[in-house]
UniProtKB/TrEMBL annotation, chain A:
Topology with respect to the bilayer: Multi-pass membrane protein
Name of the molecule in the record: Monosaccharide ABC transporter membrane protein, CUT2 family
Subcellular location: Cell membrane
Main location: membrane
MF (Gene Ontology): transmembrane transporter activity
Domain of life: Bacteria
Transmembrane regions listed in the UniProt entry: 9-27, 39-60, 67-84, 90-110, 117-135, 155-172, 205-222, 234-250, 257-279, 285-306
A single cellular component GO annotation: plasma membrane
Organism whose genome encodes this protein: Asanoa ishikariensis
UniProt keyword annotations, A-Z: Cell membrane, Membrane, Transmembrane, Transmembrane helix
InterPro entries in alphabetical order: ABC_transp_permease
UniProtKB/TrEMBL annotation, chain B:
Keyword tags: Cell membrane, Membrane, Transmembrane, Transmembrane helix
Cellular location(s): Cell membrane
A GO term, aspect molecular function: transmembrane transporter activity
Record's protein name: Monosaccharide ABC transporter membrane protein, CUT2 family
Originating species: Asanoa ishikariensis
Pfam families found in the cross-reference section: BPD_transp_2 (PF02653)
Automatic annotation (TrEMBL), chain C:
Domain of life: Bacteria
Keywords: ATP-binding, Nucleotide-binding, Repeat, Transport
KW Transport (keyword) present: yes
PANTHER family: CARBOHYDRATE TRANSPORT ATP-BINDING PROTEIN MG119-RELATED (PTHR43790), GALACTOFURANOSE TRANSPORTER ATP-BINDING PROTEIN YTFR (PTHR43790:SF9)
Designated name of the protein: Monosaccharide ABC transporter ATP-binding protein, CUT2 family
Molecular function terms from GO: ATP binding; ATP hydrolysis activity
Organism name: Asanoa ishikariensis
InterPro entries: AAA+_ATPase (IPR003593), ABC_carbohydrate_import_ATPase (IPR050107), ABC_transporter-like_ATP-bd (IPR003439), ABC_transporter-like_CS (IPR017871), P-loop_NTPase (IPR027417)
CDD domains attached to this UniProt entry: ABC_Carb_Monos_I (cd03216), ABC_Carb_Monos_II (cd03215)
Record-annotated ABC transporter domain positions: 21-259, 270-514
Family matches, as SUPFAM superfamilies: P-loop containing nucleoside triphosphate hydrolases
Length: 312, 309, 517, 339
């Protein structure tokens, strides 16, 4: 338990730091503390990224990477926006589609033995094309009831879903499957040798990432109220950034999806911090880039210090 | 083993061209090939740098804005004058080198994962480029690339192709004939063993990222010479494209294996596929899907990892 | 059943009690390499069965086939009479009571000891969820049950020493109280005390009716432990015997015969100090002093994990030195990296124990591997002089008899383990280093190659090179070295004049405070 | 929440939320907005601010939410996705904030829009080509970024016109991604496989397409394209060969009109209604340096940052577009037309 805390501490630290900075910048700018409106809108806009980041972190924990999240989100956004208003049961079809897309990645990675980054680079293109086929022009809609249940702009229903996502992870972490995810990321060959069915686990992990992308898509359409076949693109790099800021090791085996959730929220707060600090828009990406590098740098320094302490 | 992959990559290119020629007469004519080679050369430059970092298990995501920044540096510092061209070229390449150096230091000395370091650096370069050129509206931003550079693309056998051949020669000599090349593969295959054999792993890594920056800048110079003037977003298409070209060229994404000859073939294959699909008037969604499927097919043909059992 | 018994292999006993494990007619190739050809093997319940053979004889491959990690190209595998040839899934074998400790340790580095031990069967509560809080206590209980009390179940596996990792791996296997236990070179990384511990458990399992199969390159262990021995050569079963003398075994394994196990040290060290170390602090080392003379083979002994590895790595610049001075030929030197150490003026070479992880570039050619540490010596303006390189590599390959005269263009991973180790040695000999740090270079090397290495070490010393020698086999240090330093808790606890001859003396000095120092 | 739009005593607060700034059009659009803000009447009446969102919908949502918190009176939006901001825009409307979106507009009906008619863009250029070719010839279509409303509308308008003229044959259609460099590469690659081309219809990246024709030494077709300065330089004969073409641009000053609309609505001087403005159109026979073409500015510059003529919607100076600085000694007069 103490171990687990130490491992994800980077994400929490960064989140805490950005939260403090956010409140400071906000209050100094507006002369009052953030209101429930602010918290609620942060929550609702971050939810899609939170889900993608959870899926991405699962994949990264096995030592892989999923670039196709962009495509999967796009497909699912397209299908959600075009179908769900006709019947809410389509929501489940969307989740099934996302899972199937992810499972396809998993099949290719686990049984086709093609490196994850390459597999998902190729399927990104395929899924993006698919999304464009389903929804050539932005549009579509989502029923108001769905919206009020998922991302109600007036009440924090989003908190429930965030809580469920966190709880889902905690449960997953406490299954044998969860332990196996870490085992594979730590050393796949050894994991196989001690009886971990690596291919099957990886298949499930990628499928889960697809499911997470589908959930993200549903929440995305719910916050924006309609769809766009290019909606998924920004999630590729932001989900990777969340995972990294959240302290999940790229080599796999270390970190936690909760860290990635913290990372996702922190990245959203950075947007707000930049907003309230009145930086010249032309220079904005410079600060975002610096934030990424510095956050991770602090993480490596902290890890080094921890190792020093352990060795001493 | 890895030279066999080069053959596969070349075979892939030939196959795509053949299919294209059969379904679309004239597709593989010299005039068509000539253009595809020129277009592929831009990818080829970028992919040269990407390949170098991939050889040591890294990746360079800062390519888009290094490329764009270098292109703008070239025109704004040369002001379109031939006499200032050499200096401007050096300056543009220098910018690329500097950013690459920064990437390399971050990865090798500070231990920041390559994905993060280069992604962050891309943002930094975007901010600096936009800010310093005031969104490409600065006084000298209307300058053209100096005339001699723009002549690179003229003629039946454009000078640009010789430039690409030069890059090919440089890469091949560097990687196969020099001690540096040997060290690159050693680091790519087993960094720990390389370190214990007295290879300056960090130095090699920094050098490779620096070279990657230089190649991205070179691509920026070539692109601005091709179009005459820079635009914003010039480098965007080259991020995923460079990675795709590297792997279609048979370079192992895990590092330590691959040759630039394969990457040349890979760049050409990608351009040929895109050109063919556009010529067939396949709609955008179909193009994206087929492009992805072709890459998958190529990966299945020769990009698979070893079986575990 | 009748079919398989009709093609009963040579070793199947006439009295047909049930066999625990049985493989017959097994073929297995890796790429072009035939690791097993028509291999047969059988072991009974209630016996300790040793599997002997040179490096590359196919022992590990057979074990991987038996435990379902890889599939046989041909042939059948039976566990307690049930044919399982088609099932490639270690978990399924495990359910049949087969547990395996692999030669390449299979601990998961990022997981804790507890997670490693309980990965397949963690304590679960309601809803079948893993009770993470109970992991460490449960693991501790298991470790204690097997008499292990110096390993923290909460520690991350990567932070353990090699010996500790081996112990955890073994406990993981033993803990299931399996009916078939397969141990692939379980003792290679263990100190003698731990070997005894393991032997006890192996005997206990046998007495309880389990079938215990193990491999080892140490004849002493096979002799003292095994009820029966099976010898493999070139992927094929050669013989299975109840008793076997060492000489006979070596002949069976290699098709050759050897004089004594250890060559006599015939030369004496000179009086010149090649290396002087004063008050060295690095990693676990807390102030080490010693001199190493030209022509001397200086052994480093002690229990595993007393700072031996730190000593070698820090002398080679691969690990940070906190304090202390290193002098070569009487001149103080600063060594910040292996590059500094290799530099001609200093001339230190380090041959690592773990050739796959720290020595070889497996996919690269033998030539590239051998040339790697001396590239710039044969280069003009950064360009490799290929002709010269080929000549130099050829001469060293011939000298060490690597790879039976085949092309040096072949990838290093096509070589057998012994040959791979020679490739690493060759790389370092090319540096013409005057100080050689040999760290457990015979680990997991077969008898024949070991013998070659002993002779080589002797020759190098005779040439006037200074050699620092560590081995996990104390026996080796006892016979091979002019002098032995015994490390304990990061300090030199004793210095024994050699050849010590008797490993017991080194062991005694490792344990006891301040003896004949 | 405090009703921020309550007191109208001081300056009114109007913010520009732009989806991204990665291309020249966006830069000019922001520049003319900033310039307008520094000119009367805005400099006295309006407190302006500008935000960019890296082409990411969720970033833009965050910014708009923050603007709501800040209590602005109006938000002028160029959206990262026409559909992606519906939710947050609704929340702004609910709080009485005036929303005006332009260019890539917001679908949500509670906001106002200022835009051009993209279908008409396609039609008008296509009709020009058809007329110049007398209804006979081979035409190439270079489209924009797939999946966006504008691309779709422009293509639709063009296809209608070409389909109505049986003598016109669309021999090829590929994307130029609204980017000159991409359009140039794609066109270069396609040309060897194409028969003689008489007309080119370009949704964006026009100068790149022309450069590809020049490099391939192909006869120059009639070109209908966007308002890139490079294209206009060819049309004016500043770059050779002189191109016969029509240039219609999505005008960057849409942001200024939106600013005016927002101001006027907040002040109650204009009814809450959307505006469609006509395109500034330029043809090869009427090119005026310093007005419709700018020899010293980059090819990628959009030459239609200002309207011209007696009925001009708004007249701006070059510094406004390049530097975002106010035009000397002028009160900005924006003609919103009659609602
Ligand atoms: N990892 C490997 N990959 C491919 N081929 C291998 C590998 N390891 C060994 N081989 C090949 O298998 C052959 C048989 O292996 P083996 O270990 O018996 O080697 P060997 O040539 O007999 O050497 P030695 O006599 O020194 O043991 C080797 O000669 C080598 O060519
Ligand atoms: N994964 C693999 N790929 C290629 N060749 C392999 C592989 N595993 C084993 N080999 C080769 O198969 C042969 C038999 O190897 P194996 O590991 O079974 O030998 P061993 O008897 O266990 O040797 P050692 O005593 O060194 O452990 C060797 O030549 C070895 O190099
Ligand atoms: Mg052999
Ligand atoms: Mg073995």
């Amino acid at each position: 338990m103490r171990d687990a805390l130490r491992r994800v501490s980077l994400g929490y630290l960064v989140l805490a730091a950005t939260a403090v900075a956010y409140i400071v910048v906000y209050t100094s700018r507006l002369g009052r503390f953030p209101t429930s409106f602010d918290y609620l809108s942060i929550l609702n806009t971050t939810l899609p990224l939170v889900f993608v980041a959870i899926g991405q972190s699962l994949v990264v924990l096995t030592g892989g990477i999923d670039l196709s999240v962009g495509g999967m989100v796009s497909v699912c956004v397209a299908v959600t926006a075009t179908t769900v208003s006709s019947s809410i049961t389509w929501l489940f079809v969307v989740l099934a589609i996302g899972t199937a897309c992810g499972a396809l990645n998993g099949l290719i990675v686990a049984y086709g033995r093609i490196a994850p980054i390459l597999t998902t680079l190729a399927t990104l293109s395929i899924f993006t094309g698919l999304g464009l086929r389903v929804l050539p022009v932005p549009g579509g809609s989502i029923p108001q009831e769905v919206r009020l249940v998922l991302t109600n702009p007036a009440t924090p229903t989003g908190l429930i879903w965030l809580g469920l996502a966190v709880a889902g992870w905690l449960v997953l972490r406490r299954t044998r499957f969860g332990m196996r995810v870490y085992a594979i990321g730590s050393d796949e060959a050894s994991a196989r040798a001690v009886g971990v069915p690596a291919a099957a686990v990886k298949l499930k992990v990628y499928a889960l990432s697809g499911l997470c992308s589908a959930l993200a898509a549903v929440f995305y359409v719910s916050t924006t109220t309609s769809g766009d076949a290019n909606a998924g693109n920004p999630f590729i790099l932001t989900s990777i950034a969340s995972v990294v800021v959240g302290g999940v090791a790229f080599s796999g085996g270390r970190g936690s999806a909760l860290g990635a959730v913290a990372g996702a929220v922190a990245l959203t707060l950075v947007i707000d911090i930049l907003f309230f600090s009145g930086i010249d828009p032309l220079y904005q990406s410079l600060f975002q880039g610096l934030f990424l590098v510095v956050a991770v740098l602090l993480g490596t320094v902290a890890a080094l210090a921890a190792r020093r302490r352990r060795q001493a | 083993m890895s030279s066999r992959r080069v053959l596969y990559a070349l075979g892939g290119t030939v196959a795509v061209l053949l299919v294209g020629a059969i379904l679309h007469p004239g597709f593989a004519s010299w005039s068509s090939l000539r253009v595809m080679l020129v277009v592929a050369s831009f990818t080829g430059f970028v992919a040269a740098g990407q390949m170098l970092v991939v050889l040591v298990g890294g990746i360079d995501l800062s390519i888009p804005w290094v490329l764009n920044g270098a292109a703008i540096v070239l025109t704004t510092s040369s002001l379109g004058q031939t006499s200032r061209a050499p200096l401007a070229i050096l300056l543009a390449l220098g910018v690329g080198a500097l950013v690459g150096l920064g990437n390399g230091m971050g990865v090798a000395w500070l231990g920041v994962p390559a994905v993060v370091m280069t992604l962050g650096m891309n943002g930094v370069m975007q901010g600096l480029t936009l800010g310093l050129s005031k969104g490409l509206t600065c006084a000298s931003c209307g300058s053209y690339a100096p005339e001699p550079l723009r002549g690179l693309f003229d003629g039946a056998l454009p000078a640009q192709l010789f430039l690409w051949a030069g890059v090919g020669l440089f890469m091949t000599v560097l990687l196969t004939l020099t001690t540096f090349g040997r060290r690159v593969y050693a680091v790519g295959v087993n960094p720990r063993a390389a370190f214990l054999s007295g290879v300056g792993v960090r130095g090699v890594t920094v050098a490779l990222y620096t070279l990657s920056g230089v190649f991205a800048a070179l691509a920026g110079i070539a692109l601005v010479a091709y179009g005459g003037q820079p635009s914003l977003g010039l480098g965007d298409p080259y991020l995923f494209e460079s990675i795709a070209a590297v792997v279609v060229g048979g370079v192992s994404i895990l590092g330590g294996r691959g040759h630039y000859l394969g990457v040349i073939a890979g760049s050409l294959t990608l351009v040929a596929v895109t050109t063919f699909l556009q010529a067939q008037r396949v709609p955008e969604y179909g193009r994206l899907m087929i492009y992805g499927l072709v890459i998958l097919a190529i990966l299945f043909a020769y990009g698979r990892e070893k079986a575990h059992d | 059943m009748t079919e398989t018994s009709s093609m009963a292999p040579a070793q199947a006993e006439p009295g047909s009690e049930t066999l625990a494990v049985r493989a017959s007619g097994v073929d297995r190739a890796f790429g072009g390499v035939q690791a097993l050809r028509d291999a047969s093997f059988a072991a009974r319940p209630g016996e300790i069965h040793a599997l002997a053979g040179e490096n590359g004889a196919g022992k590990s491959t057979l074990i991987k086939v038996l435990c379902g990690l890889i599939k046989a190209d041909k042939g059948t595998v039976e566990i307690f009479g049930t044919e399982v040839s088609r099932v490639v899934e270690p978990a399924a074998r495990r359910r049949m009571g087969v547990a395996t400790a692999f030669q390449e340790l299979s601990l998961l580095p990022d997981l804790t000891v507890a997670e490693n031990l309980l990965l397949q069967d963690p304590p679960r509560g309601r809803l079948g969820l893993v009770q993470r809080r109970r992991l460490a206590p449960a693991a501790e209980e298991i470790l204690n049950r097997y008499g292990v009390d110096d390993i923290d179940p909460r520690a991350t596996a990567a932070d353990l020493s090699v010996a500790q990792r081996q112990v955890v791996e073994l406990v993981r296997v033993l803990a299931g109280e399996p009916r078939v236990v397969i141990l692939d070179e379980p003792t290679a990384a263990l100190a003698d005390r731990q070997v005894d511990w393991l032997a006890g458990h192996m005997r206990r399992l046998r007495d309880a009716g389990s079938c215990v199969i193990f491999t080892s390159h140490r004849w002493r262990e096979i002799e003292s432990l095994a009820d029966r021995v099976t010898v493999f050569r070139n992927g094929t079963h050669v013989a299975t015997r109840d008793t076997l003398s060492e000489a006979e075994a070596v002949t069976l394994m290699s098709g050759r015969s050897f004089a004594g196990a250890y060559p006599q040290i015939t030369t004496e060290p000179t009086d010149d100090n090649a290396l002087s170390v004063t008050n060295l602090h690095s990693g676990r080392l807390a102030g080490v002093d010693f001199d190493l003379r030209r022509g001397e083979i200086l052994g480093v002994g002690g229990l595993a994990g007393q700072g031996q590895r730190d000593l070698f790595l820090s002398l080679f610049g691969a690990q940070r030195v906190r304090r202390g001075t290193i002098a070569v030929d009487g001149k103080a030197v600063t060594i910040r990296s292996p590059k500094d150490a290799i530099r001609a003026g200093v001339g230190i070479a380090y041959v690592p124990e773990d050739r796959k992880a720290e020595g070889l570039f497996l996919p690269l050619s033998i030539r590239d591997n051998i040339a790697a540490a001396t590239l710039s010596r044969r280069a003009t303006a950064g360009f490799v002089n290929r002709g010269k390189e080929r000549a130099v590599v050829k001469s060293i390959v011939d000298q060490l008899n690597i790879g039976a005269g085949r092309s040096t263009n072949r990838a290093a991973d096509t070589l057998s383990g012994g040959n791979q180790q020679k490739v690493v040695m060759a790389r370092w000999l090319l540096t013409e280093a005057r100080i050689l740090l040999l760290f457990d270079v015979t680990r997991g090397v077969d008898a024949a190659t070991k013998h070659d290495i002993y002779e080589l070490v002797g020759t190098l010393a005779a040439q006037g090179r200074a050699i620092l020698y560590y081995s996990s086999e104390t026996e080796e240090i006892a016979h091979l070295c002019h002098r032995v330093l015994v490390l304990r808790e990061g300090r030199v606890a004793a210095e024994l004049a050699g050849p010590v001859g008797d490993a017991e003396r080194i062991v005694a000095a490792s344990i006891k405070e301040g003896q004949d120092a | 929440a405090p009703a921020a739009s309550g007191e109208k005593a001081g300056k009114i607060k109007i913010a520009l939320s732009n989806s991204f700034i990665g291309n020249q059009w966006r830069v000019e659009m922001e520049n003319v907005y900033k310039a307008a803000c520094a000119m009367p009447p805005y400099v006295d009446q309006v407190e302006c601010s500008v935000f960019n969102a890296g082409n990411d919908v969720s970033t833009q949502s965050r910014q708009i939410s923050n603007l709501i918190s800040q209590g602005v009176d109006a938000i002028v939006i160029n959206a990262a996705s026409t559909s992606g901001l519906n939710g947050v825009v609704q929340q702004a409307c609910d709080r009485g904030i005036v929303i005006v979106s332009f260019d890539n507009t917001v679908d949500n009906q509670c906001g106002l829009t200022v835009n051009t008619d993209q279908i008409k863009f396609g039609q008008q250029l296509a009709q020009f080509i058809v007329d110049e070719l007398n209804g006979q010839g081979n035409v190439v279509m270079v489209t924009g970024v797939a999946g966006t409303g504008a691309d779709n509308d422009r293509n639709k308008g063009a296809k209608e016109v070409f389909a109505a003229n049986p003598g016109i044959k669309v021999v090829s259609s590929y994307t130029g991604m609204w980017d000159s460099a991409t359009a140039q590469r794609a066109t270069s690659a396609q040309l060897p496989n194409l028969p003689e081309i008489h007309g080119v219809w370009v949704s964006g990246g026009t100068d790149g397409v022309i450069k590809a024709f020049v490099a391939a030494k192909r006869p120059m077709p009639v070109v209908g394209g966007e308002a890139e300065n490079g294209f206009r330089k060819f049309m004016a004969g500043i770059l050779t060969p002189k191109v016969n073409g029509m240039s219609i641009g999505q005008p960057p000053f849409l942001s200024v009109i939106s600013l005016e609309l927002a101001r006027a609505v907040v002040k109650g001087e204009h009814p809450k209604s959307s505006i469609t403005i006509p395109f500034p159109v330029a043809t090869s026979d009427k090119m005026v340096p310093g007005e419709t073409v700018f020899p010293d500015l980059p090819d990628s510059f959009f030459a239609d940052f200002t309207d011209s003529g007696p009925n001009a919607t708004v007249i701006l100076c070059q510094e406004a577009a390049t530097d975002g600085t106010p035009c000397p000694g002028k009160t900005l007069d924006v003609n919103l037309g009659t609602p």
